[in-house]
Amino acid sequence: MESTYERLGGEWVLRAIINDFVENMLDDPMIGFLFRETDVHRLRDKEFEMTAMFLGADIRYTGRPLRVAHQASQPIFGGQFDRRRQILVEAMREHDVPEDIAAEWIGHVDHLRGVIVL
User: Fold this and answer.
1) Which of 17, 39, 46, 75 pairs as cysteine with 118 (C-beta 3.0–4.6 A)?
2) With 0-12 CB in 10 A as exposed, 13-18 as middle and 19+ as buried, what is 49?
3) What is the mean pLDDT of each run of 10 residues along the chain (118 residues)?
4) What's the confidence (pLDDT) of residue 1?
5) Could you tell me which of 40, 37, 43 has the C-alpha nearest to residue 64?
6) Domain layout of the chain by residue ranges
7) In the CATH hierarchy, which top-level class contains the domain 4-116?
8) Do 18 and 51 form a contact (C-beta atoms < 8 A)?
């Protein structure tokens, strides 16, 4: 059976979505400042790994636990989390991610809210 990752289009499609998503976060006036001290290449890689793994790829997330990874940016408020979520939704729309995959992906993001938001 084909994984959600494969249905999405695999590595290059997911990397394109993640690249646009990260660029839009960095440029965003509400949350861009949270990433000033961030290694952008690492951020892209970890976002890719985590999402690919969640979508069923045979890829392992090699980053720190999310709570630990976000401690340097604390506090992260609900509105900032929501803005990041909206930027992701927009990136998925720009890349014509099928609605069922987008809903599954956003559901996963929503599930992580309690780990990231103060």
Assistant:
1) 75
2) middle
3) 96 98 97 92 97 97 86 84 98 98 97 90
4) 86
5) 43
6) 4-116
7) mainly alpha
8) yes
